[in-house]
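Write out the 3D structure for:
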Amino acid sequence: MLQAWLMLSSRSLHPPPLTSDDVKQEGSSTPLQCGNRGDNYQPSKTKRVNKHGLEKRMSTAAGRRVLLARLRKGRWRLTVDSFR
């Protein structure tokens, strides 16, 4: 059904509703699992500062614009490492 819609996609703006046949993984009898992503976020202060810190912001023109925008808005902290 999904393949038929792909061929006729120029006729309709919305795809037809998915059926259980469309949702199944190829070569599998069980449908795809949708749910929680899991424990993927492993915080690291070093990586956070290296990506979003003051030195990183000041090193590029776009980063300097971000800092100026935060200054104009009156943000308490300009970058993640401003509390040091």
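Residues 61-73 form the longest helix (13 residues).
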